[in-house]
Amino acid sequence: MGIQLVVSLLAASIMQRLAPHCSFARWLLCNGSLFRFKHPSEGELCALAGKQMPKQNRRDRRQNGENKPLTVPKDIDLQLEKAPVNVMDALVLRFFLEYQWLVDFAVYALGVFLFTEGYYSVIDASKEVNIGAIWCVLTVLFGLKALQTLMSHYFRSEEGGERSVCLAFGFLSLLVAMLVLVVREDYLEFGLESGFSNLFDNLETFAKQQGYADWSIPVTKLSVKLGLAAVCAYIGSLLAFPGLRLAQTHLDAVQMNSDRPLIQILLHLSFLSPVVVLVLWVKPIARDFLANAPMGKTSVTLVSSEAFDTVRLWIIVALCVLRLGLTRYHLQAYLNLAQKWVEQMRKEAGRIAAIDIQRKVTRVFCYLSVVTLQYLVPILLILFSTLALKVLGNYSWCFDNEETPGVTPALVLPTAAPVASGGLDEDEEGMEDMEEDIQATVAHLLEAFAALRSVLTPIFLRGLFAFLTWWVAACQVISSLFGIYFHQYLMQN
């Protein structure tokens, strides 16, 4: 690993030391661009209602046995006070620490990835393990873990409605995944069929090299695809509420920027970006159209097959950057739900308890970090799975790459020659034994990495991470479009 390991350990150390003092996640919420709404006090509500504030406060009324809450008319002219979100407000938010750790880890993982890309462009390090790819895969796993934490919170809810939504989207995702996995490669070009075949062949070869000549692969492609469909169902259930939340914040953000047409265009493009990701892997629409574009009776090759892979990577990265750049508009649209609810309340008749108004307004801000996670994690999943696809699939950022993925052969490692111990004292013999143990450990690690690389070849990893990237986008399309239908039609009716 060499210098890559040094940079990786340095990045981990810096992240641990600087997190309490310098955090990108904390700056994203607390840079002064987001405004929250403060809940009104009982005195303010009484003044707006034109009545005198009771002399006894709520605690005194409870002690005297008066449980009747303070109520005010719903049609009072209530205007919520704005305040910028600061660090002290954000630290008490639910799931804020999980949000801060994940976003900061993603930032440092991106830094390590950029370093490894520059390192590989300068030095031929094809035999080294790419540390940047490991950081990318870890970011994807930690993103799924964050969504799992949120979903477990929904499952512990007493109402049970959130649990039913997650289960429904999980079963729907299972059905869609099973349909997608039987589609031929002529239509969806993930490369899973060739990847699975290459994986099984390499496993049999590896087993024979280890002395298991009569051993055969006990699994079939069908069982592997069923397991992959189960994983897809799990991911679909995790992305149910992020998609529903994205639909709500998108509609509110478009309405909030009704006088800014350029921002509205960017918001619509950001919302439709997962659809673009889906189309990029539909072979008749994307690759075949660019490779054989019809021009009258002839066809013109606009982009070569190798260049199309590079263009696809750049398009996905650009769309992720666009969605990250519009984070503030979506979060502010969510925070405006407090004022939106107050405006809706003023149109109703009757009375409402003051404590209910305070809870409604406060609850919007309390879930800000949860909404931020639901918005950012799907973007991070697509972005870092694409970066892992580039590295592990042997793709290139340049347009002149014509390398085809092949099988990485297992490395034949030289064994260390035994060191003669004659004429050495006990201390020197102890040092020699320690050095031999270290060399043996390093040799075992290198052998393990070489065996892993000989089995998990770029052909298999291309198919796996291409399908993962496509599936995350598909789940977000399904859940967000359902959210648009729910908020536009079902909620209004």
Automatic annotation (TrEMBL):
<keyword id="KW-0472">Membrane</keyword>
<keyword id="KW-0732">Signal</keyword>
<comment type="similarity">
    <text>Belongs to the TMEM161 family.</text>
</comment>
<keyword id="KW-0325">Glycoprotein</keyword>
<keyword id="KW-1133">Transmembrane helix</keyword>
<feature type="transmembrane region" description="Helical">
    <location>
        <begin position="164"/>
        <end position="183"/>
    </location>
</feature>
<feature type="transmembrane region" description="Helical">
    <location>
        <begin position="101"/>
        <end position="120"/>
    </location>
</feature>
<feature type="transmembrane region" description="Helical">
    <location>
        <begin position="222"/>
        <end position="241"/>
    </location>
</feature>
<feature type="transmembrane region" description="Helical">
    <location>
        <begin position="459"/>
        <end position="486"/>
    </location>
</feature>
<dbReference type="Pfam" id="PF10268">
    <property type="entry name" value="Tmemb_161AB"/>
</dbReference>
<feature type="transmembrane region" description="Helical">
    <location>
        <begin position="262"/>
        <end position="282"/>
    </location>
</feature>
<keyword id="KW-0812">Transmembrane</keyword>
<protein>
    <recommendedName>
        <fullName>Transmembrane protein 161A</fullName>
    </recommendedName>
</protein>
<dbReference type="GO" id="GO:0016020">
    <property type="term" value="C:membrane"/>
</dbReference>
<dbReference type="InterPro" id="IPR019395">
    <property type="entry name" value="Transmembrane_161A/B"/>
</dbReference>
<feature type="transmembrane region" description="Helical">
    <location>
        <begin position="132"/>
        <end position="152"/>
    </location>
</feature>
<feature type="transmembrane region" description="Helical">
    <location>
        <begin position="364"/>
        <end position="387"/>
    </location>
</feature>
